[in-house]
Amino acid sequence: MKVAIAGATGFVGSPLVERLHSEGHSILVLARDSERARRIFPASAYPNLEIVGYSPAESGDWQHLIGGCDGVVNLAGVPIAEERWTAARQQAILDSRKLTTAKLVEAIANANPKPSVLVSASAIGYYGTSETAEFEENSPGGDDFLAAVCKEWESAAEKVKNTGTRLVILRLGIVLGMGGALAKMLPAFRLFAGGPIGTGKQWFSWIHRDDVVNLILYALQNPQVEGVLNATAPHPVRMNELCETLGEVLQRPSWLPVPSFALELLLGDGAKVVLEGQQVLPKRTLLSGFQYEYPQLRSAIEEIVKHF
């Protein structure tokens, strides 16, 4: 295949590029910072990879390169839980997703030949938060800021169906791998100061990063897969169980809680990504025939921490 990727240098994008490269596919990397992308993916090591600079919210010559690609993967978006949610940050969170997706769809509409599939990220923030409800792909959306972002993000992607291109929307849970959320938690555990964040009762709907990459490839390569799929493991846990499992694997205590106010001081409204959760089940993902490499939390944590 030839696959165009927006967000290729990110936490999920980088291992996706590695995997596609290892399998002999051609890759078109759409990069806001093309110099950084070249440092991450040097031409000597990635002969089948082309890097093109682009402004994600603007039309441009980069769009013509979508023609001839077999698939497009959209992982673009500024991080949600790394800064306080000022009005400007909220706008950046929305624009980096909605506008980029709209420009990718515009490129697909004008492409000749057209890609056969767009795999576009969304997030489980679509459902809102709850300590009691179960959510699956057909569940209604929530009514908070993240739910609104996800709805606009997905609405922009839905327009690609007017071009005849197959659409797969992946609502990503909290991705666990070398880096990301787990990297922020590990130092405290290693210093014997780990423990649950907030009440510990909030749901933590997670997925191993390898399974996200596997699911993207599955969506690219299987024409029968379409629509919304929850990119979460089949067995979500509460925060207490996550921390207990992490402590057991690291052979460290996991009883020292991180109070909610400490995270709220740091992240403001952005803290709700961690302090409030949702129990999200991948019903359609499983029905599609996808098989998880890491369906259980403990095996996922064991595989990840051995690399840190």
List the helices and strands and how they pair.
Elements: E1 2-6, H1 13-22, E2 26-31, H2 34-40, E3 49-53, E4 71-74, H3 87-110, E5 117-123, E6 134-135, H4 145-158, E7 166-172, E8 174-177, H5 180-190, E9 203-204, E10 206-208, H6 209-221, E11 227-231, E12 237-238, H7 239-250, H8 260-267, H9 272-275, E13 279-280, H10 283-287, H11 297-305
Parallel strand pairs: 1-2, 1-4, 2-3, 4-5, 5-7, 6-13, 7-11, 8-10
Antiparallel strand pairs: 9-12
Helix pairs in contact: 1-6, 3-4, 7-11
Question: What would you note in describing this structure?
Answer:
The protein is of the alpha/beta class and 308 residues long. The chain contains 11 helices and 13 strands. It has helices at residues 13-22, 34-40, 87-110, 145-158, 180-190, 209-221, 239-250, 260-267, 272-275, 283-287, 297-305, and strands spanning 2-6, 26-31, 49-53, 71-74, 117-123, 134-135, 166-172, 174-177, 203-204, 206-208, 227-231, 237-238, 279-280. The strands form 4 sheets. A 7-stranded parallel sheet has the order 3-2-1-4-5-7-11, with helices on both faces. A two-stranded parallel ribbon has the order 6-13. Helix 1 (13-22) links the parallel strand 1 and strand 2. The longest helix is centred in the N-terminal third of the chain and has 24 residues, at 87-110. It is globular, with a radius of gyration of 19 Å. The mean pLDDT is 93.
